[in-house]
Structure formats: C-alpha cells, structure tokens
Amino acid sequence: MTTELAHDPRPIFARSLDQAGKQVAAVRPDELSNRTPCAEYDVRALLGHMVSVLHKLARVGTGGDASDLPDVIDGIADDGWAGAFARARSEAEQVWADDGQLDRMIELPWATLSGRDVLDAYSHEFTAHSWDLAHATERLAELDPDLATRALEAFSKFAPPDDRSEQGPFSPAVPVPDDADIHTRLAAYLGRRP
C-alpha cells in the first residue's frame, strides 16, 4: 500500500519570497513614491504592506489573531526596507518551519484554511506583488514565469472574474493580447492594467 505524501508548500513559498526579496532590495529611495498597479499603494506603501503580511503570517501561524496588525507598516527608513523584509521573512519562516503548522486550520479575515493552503495563497500574493514592484520600478525581466503560472492557476480557482467588483481585493479582469507573457496575463487577471 502506498501513501501519497502531502504537498509541502514551503519550497514554493520560499521561492516567492526570494523573488519578492530581490525586488524589495532593488528599490532605490528615489523610487519610493512611484505609483504601483495597486491603486491604493505607491512603492513605499506596497513595501509596507508586504512586510506587514509577513508579520501577519507569523502571528496567525502561532495561533494568534493578526487583525490588530496594520495592513501597511510605516516608519521604515528609506534605505531600510530590505532589512525590514528580511527580518519579517525570517520571523514567518521560523513559525512555519514546524510541520505541524501545515495541517492546522488557520483563521484569516477572508477564510479558514489549512496551513498548507495559507502558504499557497500567500505565495501567490507575493508573486503578484513582486510584479507590482517590478512594474513600478521597471524591473520586469527579473521575474520567475513558473511562479506566475502557479499563481494564475490558483487565482483562476478561488478568484473567479464573475465575483469581482472595484471594492474587492481584485478588480475585474482586464483584457490582454493572446500572446501576452504570463506575468502580464496574471496582472490582467487580477485587474491590474499592464
């Protein structure tokens, strides 16, 4: 009798954080006020959001409630974002290194999911935000197409275009040419305007 091994989302999560971390580290202080495809965020606010999400992941991973943490962390020095991201990443990865976290049910503001599904979902969020940063700072060539393919497949399942409005986390999908690259298709699916 063979037993199928359960999916471990941590390697993909680490890859998505590697990609995001490279984008964060590449941001120059003069780019912090650049607009991003996320309508409510400039680059500084998007960086603050990404760091905050990592803190929230650490909190929920220990069974805590992350609702009191801000959606955007501020007060980081212009040249301190790479360090803030690296510290928050380390904190989150330490919490999620415990195999027991993967099968525990985690309450998020928008769903209750297994730890495996939580890390999958946030891998895709960091993939999308890496594109947002790369677009805002003109570093699109540095993105991993496999991560974008995975994210597009996942978002297609849990964020169908019919259930969207301008008020939700994802705007209605935007049409793109059939030959658009995978990052452009992901961004357009999420309602960004590449």
Automatic annotation (TrEMBL):
<dbReference type="Pfam" id="PF11716">
    <property type="entry name" value="MDMPI_N"/>
</dbReference>
<dbReference type="InterPro" id="IPR034660">
    <property type="entry name" value="DinB/YfiT-like"/>
</dbReference>
<dbReference type="InterPro" id="IPR024344">
    <property type="entry name" value="MDMPI_metal-binding"/>
</dbReference>
<feature type="domain" description="Mycothiol-dependent maleylpyruvate isomerase metal-binding">
    <location>
        <begin position="15"/>
        <end position="134"/>
    </location>
</feature>
<dbReference type="InterPro" id="IPR017520">
    <property type="entry name" value="CHP03086"/>
</dbReference>
<feature type="region of interest" description="Disordered">
    <location>
        <begin position="157"/>
        <end position="179"/>
    </location>
</feature>
<dbReference type="InterPro" id="IPR017517">
    <property type="entry name" value="Maleyloyr_isom"/>
</dbReference>
<protein>
    <submittedName>
        <fullName>TIGR03086 family metal-binding protein</fullName>
    </submittedName>
</protein>
